[in-house]
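Propose amino acids for all 259 sites.
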């Protein structure tokens, strides 16, 4: 994991990992190399049974200022189509391990989309969100028009995608895009603490909780509830359900084995 050029990856706690975007000179603009590295690093962490939660972050100034405009500028339709440009990002949304985005500064275009690909989105009070692609003569390409609309509704999604204006952290939290806003100095500690909390849960059960919530975006209410019910029944096949409920009855902390 040391041969990455555009990211750093480190183990942070018992069962957590931190991935930091590291292209400071380009405000973490997401070129194809960043995409490949983020996807391969997170997929490797996803396969590691000792990792229960992954935090993604950028710098204080920029989570990521978007896809790399200079890399895209000369591309033509056939280049984009034949390489299926950006499609590898979808794999981030398909990770089974819970992910936390810790966003400070710019989260624009692909940066906002990257944050929305994560499960829990924490923002510093300096965070700035937007889908300003329209100002470049393009539209979002990593799911922004879909995930932003599901997160904040049509009113703000249309506003942001059509005018290119940005939202500050307060507006983003009010709109339901982010789950918590914290002081910029507290962002990483808070994100790592959230990750520790999640990673302290039963991993298979956390995976099922994630899968159930994500299902809400893919199906009808009745089917989603049925899907949840089946997973709810399935958790009773885990040792961790026995342990979690026994620990409650015994008034002690559970000792999950992640099985
Ligand atoms: N792509 C490539 N390079 C970028 C970049 C991007 N998205 N964002 C910033 N950079 C580069 C700048 O070109 C600059 O490089 P040089 O020093 O070589 O000139 C460097 O990062 C620092 O940026 P600025 O000097 O512009 O920094 P600033 O503090 O003055 O402004 C900013 C910050 C307002 C975020 C500004 O950089 C900006 O507007 N960036 C572009 C934001 C944007 O349009 N994002 C959407 C991209 S399209 C997209 O993401 C498509 C999609 O849906 C996937």
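Proposal:
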């Amino acid at each position: 994991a040391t041969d990455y050029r555009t990211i750093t990856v480190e183990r942070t706690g018992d069962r957590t990992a931190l991935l930091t975007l590291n292209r400071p000179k380009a405000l973490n603009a997401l070129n194809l190399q960043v995409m490949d590295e983020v996807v391969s690093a997170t997929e490797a962490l996803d396969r590691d049974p000792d990792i229960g939660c992954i935090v993604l972050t950028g710098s204080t100034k920029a989570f990521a200022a978007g896809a790399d405009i200079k890399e895209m500028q000369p591309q033509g339709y056939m280049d984009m189509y034949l390489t299926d440009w950006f499609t590898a990002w979808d794999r981030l949304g398909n990770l089974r391990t819970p992910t936390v985005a810790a966003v400070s500064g710019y989260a624009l275009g692909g940066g906002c989309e990257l944050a929305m690909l994560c499960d829990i989105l924490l923002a510093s009070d300096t965070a700035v969100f937007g889908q300003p692609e329209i100002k470049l003569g393009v539209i979002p390409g990593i799911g922004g028009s879909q995930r932003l609309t599901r997160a904040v509704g049509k009113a703000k999604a249309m506003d942001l995608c059509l005018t290119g204006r940005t939202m500050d952290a307060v507006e983003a939290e009010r709109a339901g895009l982010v789950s918590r806003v914290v002081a910029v100095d507290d962002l990483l500690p808070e994100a790592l603490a959230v990750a520790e909390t999640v990673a302290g849960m039963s991993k298979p059960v956390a995976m099922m909780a994630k899968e159930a919530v994500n299902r809400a975006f893919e199906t009808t209410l009745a089917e989603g509830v049925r899907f949840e019910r089946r997973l709810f029944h399935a958790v009773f096949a885990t040792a961790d359900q026995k342990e979690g409920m026994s620990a409650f009855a015994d008034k002690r902390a559970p000792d999950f084995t992640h099985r």
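The longest strand covers residues 16-21. The mean pLDDT is 98.
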